[in-house]
């Protein structure tokens, strides 16, 4: 009798162990049929069966069940809080499972977009990067963007620089350079460095969709000290900029400022000596509002009476000062 009971117990144990993958398969079928509530039930049944099983095989099934349940909460039921709880359980219980990497990324996105927990999101992306995933360049750039949102421009500049250096052939290099230039331009005393980064982007990636934006930002950095150069950069940006009207407004603004602050006769030799415009001055060349020019008598200390007499004398009779 005992032998029969023992054999029955072994049979039941084997069935319980084999039921976990069966429930996972049922869950996948339910998801395909767009029945997330049934799929979630199957994932929970699989987890209940695996609760006391610590074998490597059961750990794989546990990771799949936890990931599946968390995804349903996140994407089917829009229950971000419950999804975060299950993703964190997945990370704790199955840290090395393949499903955990994607789970971390989903968790990071929820923390970022649903709860604005930017530092929490950075922590999850950084943990994912420690496993050297195929999308490392994209994740590294995302970390840099999050630091920019936090207004931690110094760390953003460092992270963006890492992307440009570590992933030289990545499609995210021009994005990283542009972000690095933005971060540098926000830092005290780093505008010259920002200009160099924008120039690097413009020269290295002439076909990048960020090139016209870099030209605009470079022009803004030069607008106060070299407005003519800024205008030239903006005119170049107009060729491919997606919103040329905004660039044209910037050009008009700086041109208007130049007209308002630059005399129209500067650099015009004819206008500079057009004395007929200033008839009130007897001695052309005196500055506006300046005193009348002295006669030769007054220049050497003569009296006003002597100056009057000099004014009535023929030119050749005017005494030469000694």
List the defining traits of the structure above:
disordered C terminus, Serine Threonine Protein Phosphatase 5, Tetratricopeptide repeat, disordered N terminus, 322 residues, single chain, 69% helix, mainly alpha, elongated
SSE topology string = HHHHHHHHHHHHHHHH
CATH topology of the largest domain: Serine Threonine Protein Phosphatase 5, Tetratricopeptide repeat
Number of domains: 3
Shape: elongated
Q: Low-confidence spans: pLDDT under 50, at least 5 residues?
A: 1-17, 268-301, 313-322
- The H-level CATH homologous superfamily of the largest domain, spelled out, is Tetratricopeptide repeat domain
| H/I helix tally | 16
Overall radius of gyration: 39 Å
Biggest sheet statistics: none
CATH class of the largest domain: Mainly Alpha
- Helicity, in percent? 55-70%
Q: What integer is the average pLDDT?
A: 83
Class of secondary structure makeup: mainly alpha
How far is the first residue's CA from the last residue's CA?
148 Å
CATH architecture of the largest domain: Alpha Horseshoe
Strand content: under 5%
Count the E strands.
0
Can you walk me through this structure?
The protein is an all-alpha fold and 322 residues long. It folds into 3 domains: 15-133, Alpha Horseshoe (Serine Threonine Protein Phosphatase 5, Tetratricopeptide repeat); 135-208, Alpha Horseshoe (Serine Threonine Protein Phosphatase 5, Tetratricopeptide repeat); 209-258. Helices cover 69% and strands 0% of the residues. The radius of gyration is 39 Å and the shape is elongated. The N and C termini lie far apart (148 Å).
């Amino acid at each position: 009798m005992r032998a029969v009971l023992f054999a029955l117990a072994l049979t039941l144990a084997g069935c319980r162990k084999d039921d976990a993958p069966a429930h996972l398969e049922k869950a996948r079928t339910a998801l395909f049929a767009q029945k997330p509530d049934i799929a979630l039930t199957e994932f929970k049944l699989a987890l209940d069966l695996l609760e006391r099983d610590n074998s490597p095989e059961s750990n794989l099934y546990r990771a799949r069940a936890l990931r599946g349940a968390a995804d349903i909460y996140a994407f089917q039921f829009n229950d971000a809080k419950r999804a975060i709880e299950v993703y964190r359980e997945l990370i704790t219980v199955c840290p090395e499972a393949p499903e955990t990497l994607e789970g971390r990324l989903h968790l990071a996105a929820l923390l970022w977009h649903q709860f604005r927990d930017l530092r929490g999101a950075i922590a999850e992306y950084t943990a994912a990067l420690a496993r050297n995933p195929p999308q490392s360049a994209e994740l590294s750039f995302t970390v840099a963007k999050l630091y920019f949102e936090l207004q931690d421009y110094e760390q953003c500049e460092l992270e963006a620089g890492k992307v440009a250096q570590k992933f030289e052939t990545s499609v995210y290099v021009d994005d990283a350079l542009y972000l690095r230039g933005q971060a540098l331009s926000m830092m005290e005393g780093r505008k010259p460095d920002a200009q160099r980064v924008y120039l690097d982007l413009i020269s290295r990636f002439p076909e990048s969709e960020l090139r016209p934006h870099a030209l605009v930002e470079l022009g803004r950095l030069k607008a106060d000290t070299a407005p003519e150069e800024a205008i030239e950069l903006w005119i170049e940006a107009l060729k491919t900029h997606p919103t040329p009207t905004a660039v044209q407004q910037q050009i008009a603004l700086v041109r208007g400022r130049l007209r308002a602050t630059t005399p129209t006769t500067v650099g015009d030799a004819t206008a500079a000596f057009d004395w007929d415009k200033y008839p009130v001055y007897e001695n052309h060349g005196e500055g506006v509002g300046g005193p009348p020019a002295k006669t030769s008598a007054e220049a050497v200390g003569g009296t006003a009476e002597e100056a009057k007499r000099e004014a009535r004398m023929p030119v050749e009779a005017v005494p030469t000062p000694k």
